[in-house]
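agent> fetching stored inputs for the 5'-O-(acetylsulfamoyl)adenosine docking request
agent> found them:
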Amino acid sequence: MSSKKSKKTTKFTDEHAAVLQATHKPSTAFSKNARIGSMAAYEKLYRESIAKPEVFWAREARELVWRKPFSKTLKWKAPDAQWFIGGKLNVAENCVDRHAAGTRKNKAAIIWEGEPGDKRVITYAQLHREVCKFSNVLLARGVKAKARVLIYMPMIPEAAIAMLACARIGAVHNVVFGGFASEAILDRLEDSGATAIITADGGWRRGKVIALKPAVDEALKKYHKIKHVFVVKRTENDISMQPGRDLWWQDEMETASAKHEAEGFDSEHPLFILYTSGSTGKPKGILHTSGGYLTGTYSTCKYIFDMRDEDIYWCTADVGWITGHSYIVYGPLANGVTQLMYEGAPNEPDFGRFWKMIEEHGVTIFYTAPTAIRAFIKAGDQFPEKHDLTSLRLLGSVGEPINPEAWNWYYEKIGGSRCPIVDTWWQTETGAILISPLPGATPCIPGTATRPFFGIDAAILDEYGNECPPNVDGRLVIRKPWPSMTRTIYGDKARFHKTYFSDYPGIYLAGDGARRDKKGNFWIIGRLDDVLNVSGHRLGTAEIESALVSHPSVAEAAVVARPHDLKGQAIAAFVTLKLGYESSEDLGKELRDHVGHVIGAIAKPEEIHFTPVLPKTRSGKIIRRLLKELVTTGTISGNVTTLEDVGVIELLQKLLKK
Ligand code: 7RM
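agent> prediction call returned; pasting tokens
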């Protein structure tokens, strides 16, 4: 890396920021009761934690139950991190047994609501029984430590029980979001080499049963290493069960023993693989391990959500995403909190559903995504206004930058101008929140995730590796290892190294653009690579393109995002047809459905433009940047010097005007 000055920058002045953004300081009442109650306390602990990260993290880790204490906190040889070396622990024991054995025994761990309105309450003692029983079921059916288990479930308590049972026996779960189609399941089965699947007949969504088992059956026509499929009966829709292979969860549980002694696994024992989109067509299998991941999720729940025994916490994510792993299953349960879990859609039967649930259950901490907030704004204030939301004390946001308009609505209409909002920045790869306000300390400003968490050495670098001055855009990096960081891309160490640690040797590259203001607040701009964020769901352009190209009529496709009021980004696809095919509205619809079939409904392009050519570089690479400008502004004014054929621009502009 040379020390040349960075080239182009985008100026964003403090004056500008001051006009746009008001600062919201936490109330004295909130600060008084919070674990970190002032900026001075934050600054002090942050400084200490950066000077000696190992001291901070070892102290946090020691709040967990270790079967064997660790002898060394960190071994770091980039890109390889090992945390809490020599230590042995059982993740499920930490999330369940220690509460079930103590005063939280009869405390609700999960209060669950099905979409149709059915309710269940599961105490820590009951959760312990269920997890032990399902652990015994898995063991009896030959699932061993390190075996990969694919989980494809609706949002029912059994999803968490299945994950915890895998963790308990040392099996490695791979949760696949229920909205993904059979080909996504097949890809993940093949990449992970899974030998068991846990699924359900179906789940409820928008008043309808969404079947899950048929997608598993479809994938298993082409993948033959699965010994057993465990099927939870949830919706009672007709499904086919293959004798010998497929087993009903409820039947298996009926005879299973509730006694299971948790065994300590090595701190670096793999806990789960979660696939996330990258800049190629092949999703990355992000691997997380045990001691470090649990320490990160436990500690961030404690400080950022300030979790208390009296809280009713609700995270609206799906367990199929990292937010569901870290902030529904592992972090909250490690803290022994009571949480609400919900199966269905936010607008079933109408957009008042969430607010009704908050009122009925007395939710105190609520964690959701900007895309949901934007949908609520559109639906109208009459929905939250019908409900008493005064139980709330803290709000959270995750998944995308939250625009000030949405932030202010959330603050006023939901939080009653009383609750701090923690805008939490993190990634599948980071395992836990890395940048966020601390609710009793940090002044919140709409649009910024504010300051790094303890032990997190976040910085903004230019392309030469120099730190950017305040208010200058650059690349977000983390310069020191942290416990919950991903250890590798499953089966592809080289890609792991190249993607995250090669641009700046030894430094973690997040892939997001960001800037820092003079006060040290981080403003996240968005992805720098070809990754889209639709309604908080992360999708690779390349994945959608390869789905389009798998249709017999399509020769080539380029996918870009344009800003969308509700979804954050909407997908626009440019498609070149093969000779002999003609563009039509029907074909457009067919292609959208095709993408839905291959990847899942969330990946269906909002608009499809048929074009005889795509803008390309001389070496044949599609220039998505130009297409993005075109769908966003209607014209192309940006740099076109790398273009192979400048005539393409005029053609595309005409095409979009039609
Ligand atoms: C937790 C999660 C990660 C990407 C990340 C960002 C974007 C997430 C925020 C955010 C601005 C935030 N994991 N992102 N949180 N951008 N402010 N508070 O979403 O792996 O699915 O996505 O999401 O671009 O790199 S993820």
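agent> quick read of the result: The longest strand covers residues 554-564.
agent> awaiting further instructions
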